Amino acid sequence: xxxxxxxxxxxxxxxxxxxxxxxxxxxxxxxxxxxxxxxxxxxxxxxxxxxxxxxxxxxxxxxxxxxxxxxxxxxxxxxxxxxxxxxxxxxxxxxxxxxxxxxxxxxxxxxxxxxxxxxxxxxxxxxxxxxxxxxxxxxxxxxxxxxxxxxxxxxxxxxxxxxxxxxxxxxxxxxxxxxxxxxxxxxxxxxxxxxxxxxxxxxxxxxxxxxxxxxxxxxxxxxxxxxxxxxxxxxxxxxxxxxxxxxxxxxxxxxxxxxxxxxxxxxxxxxxxxxxxxxxxxxxxxxxxxxxxxxxxxxxxxxxxxxxxxxxxxxxxxxxxxxxxxxxxxxxxxxxxxxxxxxxxxxxxxxxxxxxxxxxxxxxxxxxxxxxxxxxxxxxxxxxxxxxxxxxxxxxxxxxxxxxxxxxxxxxxxxxxxxxxxxxxxxxxxxxxxxxxxxxxxxxxxxxxxxxxxxxxxxxxxxxxxxxxxxxxxxxxxxxxxxxxxxxxxxxxxxxxxxxxxxxxxxxxxxxxxxxxxxxxxxxxxxxxxxxxxxxxxxxxxxxxxxxxxxxxxxxxxxxxxxxxxxxxxxxxxxxxxxxxxxxxxxxxxxxxxxxxxxxxxxxxxxxxxxxxxxxxxxxxxxxxxxxxxxxxxxxxxxxxxxxxxxxxxxxxxxxxxxxxxxxxxxxxxxxxxxxxxxxxxxxxxxxxxxxxxxxxxxxxxxxxxxxxxxxxxxxxxxxxxxxxxxxxxxxxxxxxxxxxxxxxxxxxxxxxxxxxxxxxxxxxxxxxxxxxxxxxxxxxxxxxxxxxxxxxxxxxxxxxxxxxxxxxxxxxxxxxxxxxxxxxxxxxxxxxxxxxxxxxxxxxxxxxxxxxxxxxxxxxxxxxxxxxxxxxxxxxxxxxxxxx
Length: 885
Known about the structure:
Blueprint: H1 12-30, H2 70-75, H3 79-84, E1 87-93, H4 101-113, E2 117-124, H5 125-138, E3 144-148, E4 157-158, H6 166-171, H7 176-191, E5 196-198, H8 222-237, E6 242-243, E7 245-248, H9 269-274, H10 277-285, E8 290-293, H11 313-323, E9 329-331, H12 338-341, H13 346-356, E10 361-362, H14 367-379, H15 385-401, H16 415-418, H17 422-435, E11 437-441, E12 456-462, H18 471-477, E13 484-489, H19 495-507, E14 510-516, H20 529-539, E15 545-549, E16 564-567, H21 573-579, E17 615-616, H22 626-629, H23 631-641, E18 647-654, E19 657-665, E20 680-682, H24 687-701, H25 728-732, H26 751-759, H27 775-789, H28 793-802, E21 811-812, H29 819-822, E22 829-831, E23 837-839, H30 846-850, E24 860-863, H31 864-875, E25 879-880, E26 883-884
Parallel strand pairs: 1-2, 1-10, 2-3, 2-4, 3-5, 5-6, 7-8, 8-9, 12-13, 12-14, 14-15, 15-16, 17-19
Antiparallel strand pairs: 11-16, 18-19, 20-24, 21-24, 22-23, 25-26
Helix pairs in contact: 7-8, 7-17, 8-10, 11-13, 13-14, 17-21, 24-27, 24-28
């Protein structure tokens, strides 16, 4: 034979098998968790004592800058300079030219008005870091940097780590996830030069109509909010940053958006004390250092009936400071919100906030006007300079305690090792997966199998007009299903597109609706009426339906008739990615509802599903290390350079996770066609394991055969002499006495001739006497499968295992499927002995080839992912995607 595809033809097949198994075994056992990671390890999670209100929080040690005397500093400051320290102004962390108008105005504010701090709105890692350094250079007194980071630094900083929102974290049932989210958020914030994180939200979201809090809250249960909020605060403060509980005294029970107008809550103090104040009371007692106020009026507990809480002494001074004994920093919510600006000038809002007890003024709509008005108010005796000094002293002391005077520049070079590390993202992914909550599974749709639903329609209903929302949902579903049609239903969808969706539903076997109706200011949180009508037409077809709610759990009230309700808490692409596996059994599901859905679901509802299907994921999700697995690249490259083989695919599976799935090299030595990880290979003797042994196991389990069955029961040729004692077990264990193999094909080139020769082959040993690895025994086993089931082994294994399990590349004679399949299969040799030419898409083994390509010892083709799927099924006790095989 003229082997163009290997320098060692005599060992080609064994080398492929041995090398593959060696690589898999080596990677499986030697890859070490976290090895060579550049980010510092996370400490063990501290356990809170129960009950939480009794816990005494120990504040983290902070470096105090002793060289700064705050009292002396204040004596040197003018009134206007001190007033400036009260303000936090917005900045943007994108690339900014030195002559851009916004930047020039910001520089002027800091330099001329002695502004105390900034709040970064949107930006990216390096843009914000550079802007921080530039602004700090301008400021005479180092700036206090703040940022909203409710669901991680990524809430405002692109490329940072994003966590599932608070309600999703609570759905995991594990408060240590809140601690980790807080800690990682603080680490990334600190790396970016941020000193104060405006999080967590401690509002109790007990009003499903709340248009602004919703999933930002941990729960509708005040004790759960207190517990998870405390863990998040501990995580933030363990890194020396200031956490900020918001929005005092509670923004959860309102159906008005304070960005648009002033909400009014009519509860009395007894009700507030028993519900809204619970999380604040607990966290203040345990060392909370900062609180953000709410722009909400409380006419039944305040002397000032129409006054927002931010400006109301009854709320901030009497309840927060006096009753709850809060000694920390009081921060206003954004003063540019309509709940304030509709009735108060920029200066008047700040004056009243100071008189009410607030210290730090966030996003005034006009800082320069406000500073001038406050200065005049002091001169007129309306507010004392002593009151100004109280808040300024508090702010400057915080700057000193947190080392802001000592070090206020961001280390740009360190960002790449401190932001969005593999460890951080793996933790965020895990929390997102664990947050998935399934409330209903009518018709037992989940976990989804292709065999049950041949055609899947995915409809993403969105509240925007991008036309692409939900495309990531369809993409992820295609990782598990091979026939998916996708449409977006949004504000730009016209009658033609709606008609197309309805037509697609007619031919679908399963309809998956992804709801991307987000909780955003300035818009409703329910389905658009037109969209709802169309979706009702879809569900009226009596097709199995799945509703996935991304970002707003209450939207399931709009489509209660759907068979499956899955809550995923956020529309972020990573949350979508981590939620789709739950549909297919590729992740464990244990999420519990942390709120109630009126008329539908109660607090604590949630179904449980086991992890029973393979999930593609990053190595760290399986406890492996990307850095360590990179060694595979060099192992494969060396083999390719040495011409051991032209190319191949390596897959690493651990704990049901496909952690590594890479193609290397080329189909042949011409190096013109690269190997893809989806390529299909001749599995040679792995056929014995994946096809023949599996089929025998299944028939045995069903009682169709016994391991003690004599082979003569199926082949009368085995009725004489020692041959009559051979059993199925002997064939499986290679102890039948049959020889390893006979060439046969020198003379016998038909299936019937080869089988007849095997059935009459003399024994070399007595049955059970000696182990001899034998192709002949497995050829006979495949024939027994056909004898018992009525199906040749290629059809039996595909119908009973491969197709239901989604192992679509698992085939005998794949070339017969067409050129589209053959192109995915690297050739094995040029055969000039049996005149087969380039052997591609047909079995390499000559005996299997002349048996029509279907035999028990060889002939099976499959991809690396197919083998990974099969392996997980065996390791999982024979169960895959919820089905017991």
